[in-house]
Every structure is written in C-alpha cells, then in structure tokens.
Write a structure and sequence with these properties.
The complex is a heterodimer. By secondary structure, chain A is of the alpha+beta class. Chain A is globular, with a radius of gyration of 23 Å. By secondary structure, chain B is an alpha+beta fold. In chain B, the strands form 4 sheets. In chain B, strands 3-2-1-4-5-6 form a 6-stranded antiparallel sheet. The longest helix of chain B is centred in the first third of the chain and has 18 residues. Chain B is globular. Classes of the chains: A alpha+beta, B alpha+beta. The interface between A and B is large, with 80 and 77 residues.
Chain lengths: 459, 442
C-alpha cells in the first residue's frame, strides 16, 4: 500500500515536533452491497475506500489527521499537518521498521470479489423467494448480500510494521407481513469473517423461512403489559444484553476518563457469580474476529468477568497510557477517517450449568425473549436498552402466546447482578456496533439466561 | 489528482467505453476538531476527506461505483465496475438522469475563513472552565468538543448539469458530568452554527443544568399517562420515522403511508415541512442527489398528507413530478429518498404543561435504531424526563419506557408548542402533548 521509504518519512515528519509516539494507518477497502427487493436485484453499491490516518501522542495528548489518498504527497502532507499541532523538537529519530507477520487465523476460501454478481444474486434470490413463499401474509422481502475486503497497514515509531486483510460476508433478510393495514417485520442477519463459503453454512431457504416466520408470528401477536417481570433471554443475539448493559462500560475509552459505571472496580464483584464474560478476537472466522487490532496489537482472548469478579477492561494504547495498563488488542476503527479507540470484538457470556427447561420452568409470569434487535447504552449512568423482536409470555413455567416487540431497559450494574440463571448452550450472533470510532463488526453471544427482574416496555 | 482532473479522466474513459449516460457525485470535507479533558487539550484532529460516486445508466438500469482513489487508472476501473453492476440489475423500473433547465436557488457566499485551531481550542477551554465553575459537583469526565467543518458537494452529468453547493459551520458540544454521592449524572448541550454565535457561558450553564436537574431521578409506576414530548424528544421521533414519508419505501410496501396522499394522517394542528433552504440551517442545498432543484414543501398540511417525498424514479413510477428529494447518504451511497431540513411547524402554546395537568414530560428517548420500527410504526423507547404535577414540571424520573405506534401518535397529538428546536440541524419539532401513552416503570 505504501513503501517503507514513505512510511519512514511520514513517521519522521510526524515526530518532528516532539511527539513520543507516531502511527500511520493505511487502508484500501472494497465493499459491495447487492440488494434484492420485490424479487429483483434493485441496487448494487460498490465502494473503494482508500486513505491514511496518522496519530501522534505526547503523553496522554493525541493529535490525529486523515486524508482520502494513499499518494506519497498526501500521506507526507498529512504527517506534517499532524506535527504542526505540537511545538517542540524531535525526541525520536532513525526508526527501523521491522515487519511482523502475525499469521492468519481466519483463512478465506472464496474471495468474494473473484466471484461474479450472478452467483451472489442466485443465493440471495433463493432466500428471498423462500421468504415470500412462506405465507400469503408476506408482502415484501428485502434482501442484501454484503461483502467487505478490508486491507490495513500499520506502521509505528516503535518500529512495528504489520498488515492484515479482513474479508467478511453477510446476508441480511427482512420480511414484512401485512394484514388489515398493519405491518410487522422479521429478520435474519448471519455473517462471518469468511468469503463466499459463508453460503455453505446457511441454507438460503431456511434463512428466508426463519425471517418470514418471525414476521407472521408477530403479525398475529398482541402486546405484553408494561411492567417489571423476570425474563428468559435466548442464546445468540440475546447476548446484546451483556454488550449494552456491561460491555461498553468496560471499554477503556470511557473507563480511562472516569465515564464508566465500572471505573475503579478491577478485582471487585460487579456481576452475579454465575456470570463469566469473555471478549475473544481470536475465534477463527468469527464476524468480530481480527488477527491484529487497528494499532497492530495481536488479537487476544480476554476474560472480562470471571464468576462475577471484574478481571480486565478492553484497552487501547492511548487510553492505556492514562490507565497505566497495556493494550488488550481491542483498538478498532471503522476506517482511516475515524480515530481508533477500545472496542469489543466477539463478546459473550460463557456457558453455565443451568438447564434450559429449568430456566423456563422457574418463571411463574414473565417474558421469553426469543429474538433480539439492537440496543444502546449510556456508559456513564449504565442506563441501557435493547429491543425484543420476537417474544412470548411465560405463564406458570410454560412458554405461551407470542407478544410483539418491546424494549427491555435497566441500569447495567443492577441487571448484571440479576442474571441469576445461566444455561449451557452458548451461541453467538452478528451485529454492527456503533461508537466514536465508527461502525464495526462485533459478535454478541450467550446461552439462555434468566434475569430475575427487568423493566419491559410493553403497553 | 484533484477532482477537476479526475472528472476529465472519467469523461475521457466514458467516451472510450461508449458509456453515454452517466453522473458523477463528489463530496469533500475539511474538518478540524478539538477535545478537552480536565483543563487540557486531550485530542486535536484534522481531516481532509473526499470521494466520488459514479452512476451510469445502461438500458434504463443504474450501475454504481465509488472511489476515494483519484487516479487515471481508477477512473477506468470505476466505470467498469459500475457498468458490470448495471448489467446485474433486474428491476424493470427505469432509471434516468436529470436534464438541464431547472432554476436553482443561489446560496449566499459563506466566504468566512476557517477559524484557526487555536481559536477553537480557546473556546473549548473556556466552556470547560465555565462548566467546572457552574456547580461544585461537576467532576472529571466532563468534556468539551469544538469543531469546524467546510463541505463541498458537486454533481456533474452527461446531460451537461454541473452543480456545486458549499457549506461551512462550527459545532460546540459540552458534556457535563456531575457526581452526587455514588451516582453520576450526565448532561449536555450541542450547538450547531457559527463560532461568533456561541456563548461559552450559555453552553456551559445549559450542559451543567441538564445534568444537575436529573439528580435524584426516581422511577415511575407503570400505567397510561398524558405525555408531553419535549421539542428534542419529538424531533428525535420524527427523524426516526422520516422514512415513512419516502415514496420509494411506500412503493416497495415498506411504509403504511402508501396511497394515503390527500388523506388525513395526523391531527388537524400538524403541519410537517421539508425545507432544503431553511433559513437557520447551516447546510442548505440547492440541488438534490440527482441534480434536481430543491424547494420547500408542506409534506403534511393541517393533518393531510399532501405528498410523499420523491426522486426521479419514484416520481416517474407514480406519474407525478419529483419533489427533489433524491438523497445520497454519502458519495459511496446509491440514490435513495430523504428529507433535507424536516420539521413540525410550531404552534402558539408557550407551555404545554398546564394543559397536561398530571403526566410525564419526556425530555429524552433513546435506542431508536432498535426500539422504533418505521415499517410497523411501533415504538418502545427507553426514556427520561420529569413528572408533571398540577400543570408544572416536577421531580426528575428515569428508567422507564414509553410505548405506542407513530401512525397513531400523529393523529393523537392534542397540542403543539411554540418552541421549535432542531437536533443536529436536520430534524426539528416543537413540544407536543399526547394522552394515554403506555409507560413501563416499576
């Protein structure tokens, strides 16, 4: 992407005014998005993203710059512009760049860009047709195939030179069911750090039927009554509860600044003793996985909470300086245009020992949340929310009639204590997580869990 | 290579490849931002970003490709990618490019030079200092961001359209953190406009007041309540549900407003305006994402849906004239439909709380990307605000949801305030009063 000469010169210029660390992040990405609606390909987006982001640190102060070009002139001019924000003389000279090969733990078999649109369209069409054929009440199916080929290069004043190529594929299907002037939706969104071999993991017909089944079920469902009840949250995307209620508040970006409900609590009991939570960027070919993070640190498996005790935060180099702690390999950015910071990768609650049937049977009146949508959190107050896409009432320990989407809300530090039953079968699901460094792929996950009490935003 | 040269390279390459119908959409932004923590500069950044979106029409089918890599070779590859993508399109709805001949509004020159980095830093430090001084409970974690942005939007097409809009503005964001015992409370003030209009004392005072006013917030009992949505909370809802006004979504069966033109869809007192040249907007647009001249329109007038929002294709499908609402979320995006500056027209009531009597004044709703569904209209949203007791603002409350359906809510708006306010400059509303909304709390 950039020659060693240009990288060395750029780092030298960036350091010229007294910074104690400099980093060049270069990127060349190709994204494609094929959309089928009403059974026909409708739009295809096809983007090349290419540019450079340069950062320098002086103590805990950070100066950054970005430019939409990989030409040597643009990169060097960006480096000079960044250095101009400090006034001093160079502290570091004569950097020797040594390339580090971290290896690829996420092998790709079929590079999406090598395959014609037609093959991707065929798969998507099968899924959309199955979704449409599921029921007469399905009035529309919106399907997308998304491929990303994200090449990154990181060079730092510590002499590190590292590169990675991140290929990801994802299918998203959204079905609309309609009746008497009412609409309800259902969706599936599987993805992986894989090429087109993703198609082998999921039968398109099953995906289509799953999205439509959800929409039709919800069309015939009522609403749950507003109130505070016990909730059983299913595995897979159910893990969004941990992501929002706890995960974001464990990112160094807020912990380092004292903007987290869990700041200063390392070694303390912050969750129910049944809760062990892990952020693992090394799971082979998983959607949120990386070989190296966007500062060039190799991905790691970090146990965040072990039996309720807070073990570590998710840390990047800059916030690590403020905290006096090393990077945990969690620094991520959507693109060179975003300043990177600590983020999640694949985050999940580990398997426990409760049986699923015991969890359901333990609830006299409550909600079984089968499928979840996204959510959000204010990490300072811990106030979080996430949406249930498909829910069912639990009465006398049995799953009963379906109820339409409602948000579950609460305060992270309370709710994480209320996870009092944890099942055995962990599943993960894919999401896009938005925060200050942009929108990045992350996995959430958990086994079936019980939350003893949570506010359900019904009617 | 600069955009001007790249444009020429694309024109040459298109000629060579015998592509007759095409369009180039260019966006560029230069930004400087500063971030303050404690009383020091924590971060300082400059961005110089741009990109080009190319669209060609092959037998009525639109093919897209975009790039940020402006070189001679890339110009050719851009066209090849878009051409190949056009051939994969199966939709029979014809795409076409806009012709010359519109009359475009003229933007007043914003020849204001970009402020120096030190000017931004001085303002940010000043706001930070004022926040610490405003209340002794303000603690570390309090932050200020100040930024300047200059933007350029250009569109060129093979029919000879060659258009450009420019905008420049500043942002000042104060985030106050307040500690009260074990609990922390945050509040903020976001100002979008021009440096000369920012008053550091006002920004600081409002951010701190926003946090302090929530100290000791309790919960509410679940039940049905009269709700007054604050201007910002209602603007947030309107923004989330703005896709329901898109003719593209309506034609695809994704909006319940399909076919409702001329019908009552909201209470008589509701008028909703889209004004691309809105007087107080910092980004005014004279042309849309396809080069059509923009204009102001009442999308809803006294409760009646007068029009959906259209681009060229959706208008042709419906046999109407485009409303000039073709949108490109960025140069890398395909053409869609969206409003520009979109707001509910303010009424004359200075204060809605007396009419509410008892109820909840909702000042913030969150989690909209998941808790609000534009296809069904359903919403269930984490909220905070204040109790309304005896027609007056009472104790702060949090950790409750407000649930309902947006289509029903539009019809149920009983009163509209006079306090029009915009969120992030794009979407605005005055406060509104709605009765019998479901609230989940304790």
């Amino acid at each position: 992407m950039l020659s060693r000469e240009v990288l060395k010169e750029a780092l030298g210029r960036a350091l010229a005014t007294g910074a104690d660390y400099a980093e060049v992040f270069a990127e060349h990405t190709r994204n494609k998005n094929i959309n089928i609606i009403s059974g026909k390909t409708d739009k295809i987006g096809d983007a090349v993203i290419s540019g450079v982001g340069i950062r320098i640190f002086k103590g805990t102060r950070c100066v950054s710059g970005s430019a939409s070009s990989l030409s040597p002139e643009a990169v060097l001019s960006c480096a000079s512009r960044v250095a101009d924000a400090l006034t001093g003389s160079a502290q570091i000279q004569n950097i020797v760049l040594r390339e580090r090969l971290f290896g690829d733990i996420h092998p790709i078999r079929i590079v999406p860009a090598d395959v014609a649109n037609a093959d991707k369209i065929d798969y998507l069409r099968q899924a959309c047709e199955a979704a449409k054929d599921y029921s007469d009440e399905i009035t529309q199916v919106d399907g997308d195939f998304i491929e990303v080929d994200h090449r990154i290069l990181i060079a730092t004043s510590e002499g590190l030179l590292a590169q990675d190529r991140q290929i990801r594929s994802r299918v998203t299907l959204s079905s609309v069911a309609s009746k008497n002037g009412e609409n309800q939706t259902g969706s599936v969104t599987p993805g992986a750090r894989k090429g087109l071999e993703l198609f082998e993991d999921f039968d398109p017909v099953e995906l289509g039927r799953e999205a439509s089944a959800q929409a039709v079920t919800m069309l015939h469902a009522g609403y749950i009554k507003a109130g505070t009840v016990p909730v059983a949250i299913e595995n897979g995307f159910g893990g969004v509860i941990f992501h929002e209620a706890c995960g974001h508040s464990l990112e160094a970006s807020c912990v380092a600044l004292g903007q987290s409900q869990f700041a200063g609590k390392l070694g303390e009991r912050i969750a129910n003793e049944k809760v062990t939570a892990i952020d693992d960027g090394t799971i082979p070919n998983s959607w949120g996985s990386i070989n190296i993070d966007d500062e060039g640190t190799p991905a790691r498996r970090n146990v965040l909470i072990e039996n309720g005790i807070l073990k570590t935060y998710m840390i990047d180099k800059l916030n690590g300086r403020r905290m006096g702690m090393a990077s945990t390999g969690n620094c991520r950015r959507q693109s060179y245009q975003f300043e990177p910071t600590s983020r999640m990768t694949n985050t999940y609650i580990a398997a426990g020992e409760d049986r699923d049937e015991d969890i359901i049977a333990s609830i006299e009146y409550g909600l079984y949340a089968k499928s979840m949508g996204g959510g959000s959190v204010n990490p300072i107050t811990g106030q979080f929310n996430f949406a249930v896409r498909e829910g069912y009432l639990i009465k006398n320990g049995k799953i009963c009639e379906p109820v339409r989407g409602a948000s579950l809300i609460g305060k992270g530090s309370d709710v994480i204590m209320n996870i009092d039953m944890v099942g055995r079968n962990v599943a993960r699901a894919q999401g896009m997580c938005g925060a200050s460094s942009g929108s990045i792929p992350t996995d959430v996950g958990q086994p079936l869990i019980r939350v003893s009490s949570i506010t359900v935003g019904g009617r | 290579m600069e955009y001007k040269e790249f444009k020429e390279a694309v024109i040459r390459a298109a000629k060579e490849r015998q592509i007759a119908e095409y369009e180039l959409y260019y966006e560029e932004s230069e930004a400087t931002s500063v971030e303050i923590y404690r009383e020091e500069v924590k971060g300082y950044g400059t961005e110089d970003n741009m990109g080009v979106g190319f669209r060609c029409i092959v037998d009525g089918r639109a093919g897209y490709a975009s790039t940020e890599n402006l070189t001679e070779e890339e110009a050719k590859s851009l066209i090849d990618r878009a051409f190949e993508n056009a051939l994969s399109i199966e939709s029979e709805e014809k795409s076409f490019l806009h012709e010359k001949g519109d009359t475009y509004a003229v933007l007043q020159d914003t020849e204001e030079t970009a402020p120096a980095g030190t000017t931004l830093i001085d303002l940010a430090l000043e706001v930070q200092k004022e926040m610490y001084q405003a209340d002794k409970r303000v603690c570390d974690g309090t932050q200020v961001q100040v930024a300047h942005s200059s933007e350029r939007y250009a569109l060129y097409n093979s029919n000879g359209l060659d258009l450009e809009d420019r905008a420049a503005y500043e942002v000042c964001f104060g985030m106050a953190l307040v500690a009260d015992g074990e609990e922390m409370y945050d509040g903020s003030k976001f100002k979008l406009g021009y440096l000369k209009d920012f008053d550091s004392k006002v920004v600081a005072a409002e951010a701190v007041e926003d946090a302090v006013s929530t100290i000791g917030a309790g919960s509410v009992a679940s039940g049905k309540y009269t709700v007054v949505f604050s201007n910002k909370a209602m603007a947030t809802l309107l923004q989330t549900y703005s896709p329901i006004f898109s003719a593209e979504r309506a034609q695809k069966g994704m909006s319940l407003l399909a076919g409702k033109e001329g019908e009552k869809i909201a209470a008589d007192i509701v008028t909703i305006v889209d004004d691309p040249m809105y007087k107080d907007s910092v980004v005014r647009r004279t042309f849309d994402g396809e080069g059509v001249a923009t204009y102001a329109k009442n999308v809803v007038e006294r409760g009646v849906l007068t029009t959906l929002l259209h681009n060229l294709k959706t208008a042709a499908n419906a046999g109407v004239k485009t409303t000039g609402n073709a949108s490109r979320a960025s140069y890398a995006s395909v053409v869609g439909v969206s409003p520009f500056t979109f707001y509910i027209q303010p009424g004359e009531e200075p204060d809605l709380l007396p009419s509410a009597g008892e109820g909840i004044y909702v000042t913030e709703v969150t989690g909209l990307h998941a808790g609000a569904n534009p296809v069904s209209g359903d919403f269930s949203l984490s909220s905070k605000g204040f109790l309304i007791a005896d027609g007056k603002k009472g104790a702060p409350v949090k950790n409750f949801t407000v649930s309902g359906n947006f289509f029903a809510l539009l019809k149920d708006i009983e009163k509209i305030g006079a306090d029009l306010e915009f969120i992030r400059g794009k979407c605005g509303s005055p406060s509104v009063l709605v009765r019998d909304l479901a609230v989940a709390g304790e």
